[in-house]
Amino acid sequence: MTIMAVSSERAQRFREFRMPDVGEGLTEAEILKWYVGVGDAVSDGQVVCEVETAKAAVELPIPFDGVVSEIRFEEGTTVDVGTPIIVVDAGGGQAGAEPGPEAPEPGAPEAPAPEPAAEQPTRTAVLVGYGVAPSATTRRPRKAQVEPEPQPQVQPQPRAQPRAQPRAQEPPVQPAVPAPAQPAEGSPQGGGPVVYSRPLAKPPVRKLAKELGIDLATVVPTGPNGVVTREDIRAAAAPPARLPSTEGPAEAAEATEAAQAAEPVPHGREREVRVPVKGVRKATAQAMVTSAFTAPHVTEFVTFDITRTMKLVQELKTDPAFTGLRVSPLLLVAKALLVAIRRNPEVNAAWDEANQEIVRKSYVNLGIAAATPRGLIVPNIKDAQDKTLPELAAALGELVTTAREGRTSPAAMQGGTVTITNVGVFGVDTGTPILNPGESAILAFGAVKLQPWVHKGKVKPRQVTTLALSFDHRLVDGELGSKVLGDIAALLEQPKRLLTWA
């Protein structure tokens, strides 16, 4: 009865914050950055971390007050929705003085009896680093794997079963060992107080260890203050070179060559780097594969003189109606596409596979492909067909800025109908773009270059560009696609048509 009461009281005091569904049905998210640490006070509504779903980066506010008792996952970890990621002491106690796990100490004889003296310092260190005792039970078995450099003062841990017999003969030494032995887990130098029980390493080093399958607890750190470096990880990844005494001359030479191959190449470059596919890049890859092998793609191209449009862009930049707005060729390309869709509304549709129907849409959610550090995303401008040119410029500027800052919401990337990708900013003439899933067409805008062109019967230097239109051949046949692409080119070649055709 007493145990149940203590458990209930603890559950009310220590509250778990679970990974929420921030992406409308997505099942996982990657923790990008923690804004708080163990021992920090938090309040209701305070942002504690930033996570990335397959659609966008989102900041998570915590829904209650207290002191951070435990952080369950490190930065860069992908966590399933519904999994507790942080524990808060709602009673306001200090994270390092958490009494919960110590309450059942009268029942401690159930733990391994040979070394009761080592149990107390080990549990205290885990409380400082991770809060509650259950986290310690999942991490302790790793200590048994630290075999490359056996250290008598470190090995008599309560869970290090393979070392139990040899260390049982040293009882006089154990009372003095536990205090320096625990810091050895986070810092081999021992000296000062240790706050974290996990090995110290920067996020890129942790990723490298994960890619190579190296347990950081087994790596001997050589960096300042006991920090694990890249060189430590690579050294741990080449064990054959550490056993020359058991090899013949030929085997020793092979082991040496393998160790040299594992060393970094000159100038700090690595021969191979493996990057986990997750978040936005994973979602983009899956979407592109689905689109490429579901919708039958057709791509058409047109090259034309865009000189007049480029002159119009310069004039609009000085127009009072566009004060404070960014005017670029992409703005007029977007307007030309919207006018072409108005003249050919059948192109703005979607394919309903379940009902075997074509769904024609009277609205245009214009997607703009944006390259970000996390990968390619395609937010869209809702009801773009109803916007004036200044309104379209404002919406386009806000969309691009928000995407580059990583603040695009999942809702902004849903419901697109057609897309524009501006490959010209990279100096590319054109390409064959892949449709965004569920959309009918995508327009690639190539680089604008000064080229010799026949103008009014004479060869003159003119600004020339190439457009490429990919479309779903289930929805758009060759005639319709050609009309749309031809209209866009005609509008940009003679921009005054934007007035007469609109």
Structural class: alpha+beta
Largest sheet, if any?
7 strands, mixed
Proportion of helical residues: 25-40%
**CATH superfamily heading of the largest domain:** Chloramphenicol acetyltransferase-like domain
Binned strand content: 15-25%
Shape: elongated
Count up the helices.
15
CATH architecture of the largest domain: 2-Layer Sandwich
Poorly predicted runs of 5 or more residues: 93-196, 241-248
CATH topology of the largest domain, by name, is: Chloramphenicol Acetyltransferase
CATH class annotation of the largest domain: Alpha Beta
Number of domains: 4
The value of Rg in angstroms is: 31 Å
List the helices and strands and how they pair.
Layout: H1 2-13, E1 14-18, E2 28-34, E3 41-42, E4 47-52, E5 57-61, E6 66-71, E7 78-80, E8 84-89, H2 116-130, H3 133-139, H4 164-167, H5 178-181, H6 183-186, E9 200-201, H7 203-212, E10 227-228, H8 230-236, H9 249-262, H10 279-292, E11 297-305, H11 307-317, H12 329-343, E12 349-352, E13 357-360, E14 366-368, E15 370-372, E16 375-377, E17 380-381, H13 389-404, E18 418-421, E19 441-445, E20 449-455, E21 458-472, H14 478-493, H15 497-501
Descriptive key words:
502 residues, alpha+beta, OB fold (Dihydrolipoamide Acetyltransferase, E2P), Dihydrolipoamide Transferase, 4 domains, seven-stranded mixed sheet, 21 strands, 31% helix, elongated
